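TASK: fixed-backbone design
INPUT:
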């Protein structure tokens, strides 16, 4: 089969497939709730993109999200305190409050207490790589001179829009 005939054959298959999809009854999918694919359904330049999916796909995606939230991924954090002794827990809380006072614009949900006997540690952030950590490290280092970047298991960081 020549190259031109192959391209024509592929184009005909694509046209047939797109006509089949557009002929589906959209009412059977009306019960689907808003999901991650809903943001793709929209109108661009006069054309419309619609995604129809089986409800079991939503269940699988939700299950995958729950599993991934439990698992942690290798990344980096900034350690601003490490101490042991009877007052270490109190010091760690004080350092945390001090950090929030100095940097109210940073997400306070990414301030973590890490306890590995006998050390209490305060670590900041969920950075996928060292370059991301360096962006905030220089700012934090100005107020917390003992801060440094450590390799750590992190929660999945939020992606920027």
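OUTPUT:
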């Amino acid at each position: 089969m020549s190259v031109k005939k192959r391209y024509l054959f592929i184009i005909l298959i694509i046209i047939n497939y797109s006509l089949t999809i557009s002929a589906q009854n959209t009412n059977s999918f009306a019960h689907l709730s808003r999901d991650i694919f809903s943001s793709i359904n929209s109108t661009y330049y006069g054309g419309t993109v619609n995604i129809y999916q089986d409800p079991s796909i939503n269940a699988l995606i939700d299950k995958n999200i729950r599993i991934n939230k439990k698992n942690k991924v290798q990344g980096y954090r900034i350690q601003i305190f490490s101490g042991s002794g009877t007052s270490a827990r109190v010091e760690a809380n004080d350092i945390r409050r001090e950090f929030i006072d100095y940097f109210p614009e940073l997400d306070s949900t990414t301030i973590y207490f890490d306890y590995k006997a006998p050390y209490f540690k305060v670590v900041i952030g969920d950075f996928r790589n060292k370059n991301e950590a360096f962006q905030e490290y220089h700012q934090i280092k100005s107020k917390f001179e003992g801060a440094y970047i450590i390799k750590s298991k992190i929660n999945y960081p939020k992606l920027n829009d």
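COMMENT: The first helix runs from residue 3 to 22.
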